[in-house]
């Protein structure tokens, strides 16, 4: 059996584990556009502001790949997939055969048309290690940085460059920061903390026109800058799948086995689209735990096993300057808020089940317990919810539930 994985991040590593749980010897080939082994993308900002060293962000040592008979083709791109002939055309002008294929191509920055953007010399995105290295070279204490986008990527970029630059301004069309994962109250708390660190926000407006080192905003404000970072959003890398005739919507559509419309081709990670547990809607869930579990599910099934991933949940875990945030699920239902100066909790309950939550500050401690309640869609009347929402503890659950469900989730 020949296994091929296009992409080299969390989904790929999950797939290796899944394959090797059944097939211990068949070769696994990984096609990677980047020159590196798999690394932790969310922590590139930590390298930028010296909280982490580059050599420590790699997810597996080189020996791991050798021990698992994994060949990583770095600096190599898959150009096309021929499903009928089970082959892939590569950028090194070779063709690679596969028996089972996993597409884990992730996503790429989305840069909308912006007038005058071509005039800006020092402009960057912030999704890869090479992006971070380019920003690192461009920024210094004499230079101002402008970031377009106040989502997860934009704010991590702001965190990374703040201590290296003269000034950091963040612009976003939305009226609040992190609009995709935080409600209004939580967003204000995080914005206030970031402003106290020195980051300046310009919200509810967008870039109307760029010059080489300045931008006019739609609210008529003008900002000067030396370095521009574009973090407006991302798009899944579905072109390979679409051109191969696989069923795609926003992402590559997969079933609960992470199988695409072709029986020998699977997809996982930020490029895969599946049904989210709390909403019942088909969507991309671009988070690390999801990518890892999808990859493992795909790998096990590629190797001839049978595994279904039936409870994917939209979830985010992120931190800025040591302050942590965890969100999960959907924000529909009745709200229950618990807060003080050191933490913020907000739960969303519908049909007596936990549908989503926002945890900030020290409230993130033991968040896995809330995740277990959410993933398993427990009826809150069967547990001591009043105690649990105040203080997460296994004591709030019946003994049987503790043993059978929560020990794997917490």
Strand count, sense and closure of the main sheet? 5 strands, parallel
Quick one: overall form? globular
Give me the number of helical elements: 11
Rg: 22 Å
Low-confidence stretches: none
Q: Give the spatial strand order of the biggest sheet.
A: 3-2-1-7-19
- Based on helices, strands and strand pairing, what is the structural class? alpha/beta
Residue-averaged pLDDT, rounded? Answer: 93
Description:
- The chain is an alpha/beta fold and 410 residues long.
- The protein is 25% helix and 28% strand.
- The protein contains eleven helices and 26 strands.
- Helix 1 runs parallel beside helix 8.
- The longest helix has 15 residues.
- It starts with a strand and ends with a helix.
Topology (elements, then pairings):
Blueprint: E1 3-6, H1 10-20, E2 28-31, H2 44-48, H3 62-67, E3 70-73, E4 78-82, E5 87-90, E6 95-97, E7 100-103, E8 107-109, E9 123-124, H4 129-138, E10 144-148, H5 152-161, E11 167-172, H6 184-197, E12 200-203, E13 207-211, E14 214-217, E15 222-224, E16 227-230, E17 234-236, H7 239-243, E18 252-253, E19 265-267, E20 272-275, E21 282-284, H8 288-302, E22 315-320, E23 323-329, E24 334-340, E25 343-350, E26 353-361, H9 367-375, H10 385-390, H11 399-409
Parallel strand pairs: 1-2, 1-7, 2-3, 7-19, 9-16, 10-11, 10-16, 11-12, 18-20
Antiparallel strand pairs: 4-5, 5-6, 8-17, 13-14, 14-15, 20-21, 22-23, 23-26, 24-25, 25-26
